[in-house]
Amino acid sequence: MASPLKLSLEQRLAQQLRLGSTEDSEEGATTSTPAAAIPSRHLELAPHNVRVRAYLKENNVTFYHLNELKEEGWNASEGDAYFKKQREAADHKDDEQEKVFHRVHLEIGNELRSFGAFEVEGLEHGKINALNLCMAPGAYTAAMLKQYPDASVCGITLPVRSGGHKMIIPFGPQDPRVDVKFLDITMLIREFLIEPSGVPNDHPDAANFIMSSPFYGKEFELVLCDGQALRTHERAKYREMTREGRRLLAAQLIFGMTRIKQGGTFVILLHKAEAWDTICLLKSFCTFASVALFKPLSGHRQRSTFYLVAKDVQSASTEARRFIDDWKKAWTTATLGGEEGTGADPAMPTDAEVDALLHDFGPRLMHLAQEIWSIQADALDHSRWHPGSATSKTRRSSSLQSPIFSETGEPSTARHPNSVLGARSRWQPSSPNSPTSPGAQSPKHPLASRSMNQQKYIYPEIDEDKMKKMAGRWR
To answer: Would you call 264 helix, strand, or coil by DSSP?
Structure first.
């Protein structure tokens, strides 16, 4: 029997399942919940996600170490206290704290801009139409306008009275370039139903669904979606956090993909590249766009959040239309499904379906997610609250971060982790130095390299010109 001081993620969640309580794996939030509700709230425990993690631990040393760090964090009371404090600060921001929140996202927006996330294929400068969903406080719109001063930016954001963030940047009469609609994007029912057949009068939100279609008929070269379910959002009880997150993600994907111009750029905030739903989303985008993943250094490094950046989006393709229909079904299921007509969870994939996807897309997933896993692992390993951080220099080498080859073909020793997107890593299955080659063994992990760089890398200052030049390998 495992010691209570050292429980794996699966063991911890299974214990909660028996006790009837849940804990937010992302922020350490503990709440009391009926045991029957846990499968929808803690998908980490679902068999398909356990199976995915087992595959990744066996085939990618960076993810192996990240998972190890997460398990240690799950058993650290310091982690619960740290994330609880962060959550409380986020939920009760005054005007000055809103400005701090805005400044942090300004830095992230500038990182995205430097990375090339706002660039559109075939368009260097000039006037573009951009769409920013879940816009407030407006930092990313500011970053877009810094790159395209003559741009026109349309946005949708949750009103402050409903628990949304306050807009910091000027808009409307103060800045005619920025047109904002204040509403709950998940309630635009006309956008999301494949076959509108009316909503039951007894549905909790029957009177709250919005029948209008904002920005209908407009096309946008650049679409950015930055929404995530807010604890401060006032909503009906049936819209619990996990299902609300699925509704919001689906709403952004549908709205953005039905308005993006052919060949445009699509950027969206996502969580946990190792989660089944995220993997399916990444695989779908790879069928109709050139895809890269980006994790900023100026904020949220210890969390699983990252950005999908899709360029040359073929929004009119058969694959894209099928993708949109699938997400309309997902929104409908989460909103109107189930016996009571107030939402249901999606069907879980079978082991065969999981294995087929990993066989087909697993190597590509590891190639895409390598850097974001490395950044998160390194941040956890250096956090003040993490139980292993005090001895990290002797306990854990930079195998958390696999060397990336420079333009000359030699391993780079100092760089921004995202600056050479697409370059071959020795951990990638198709790399000449892949650990899958004969003899690549280590007592620590079956895929560990025989020649590890023993020093942690240092994040240099961001060289915007260099990053723009080197971030062009979109696959």
So the answer is: strand
Structural Rg of the chain based on CA atoms: 22
Q: Which pLDDT tens digit goes with each residue over 271-299?
A: 999 999 999 999 999 999 999 999 999 88
Residue burial 125-135, b: 16+ Cβ < 10 Å; e: rest: eeebbbbbbbb
Q: What is the pTM of this model?
A: 0.75
CB atoms within 10 A of CB 195: 6
Render pLDDT for 86-118 as a digit per residue (tens, 0 to 9): 555 555 556 676 778 788 889 999 999 999 999
Q: Are 188 and 212 in contact (CB under 8 A)?
A: yes
Closest alpha carbon to 27 in 245, 219, 212? 245
pLDDT at 238: 66
In this structure, the number of other CB atoms found within 10 A of the CB of residue 447 comes to 21
DSSP 78: H
- Cβ atoms of 2 and 11 closer than 8 Å: yes
**Widest Cα–Cα separation across the chain:** 66
* Cβ atoms of residues 273 and 293 within 8 Å: yes
pLDDT at 73 over 80: no
Please confirm whether the linkage preceding 137 is cis (ω < 30° from 0). yes
Residue 85 token pair = 């404090």
Q: Tell me the average pLDDT across 427-442.
A: 30
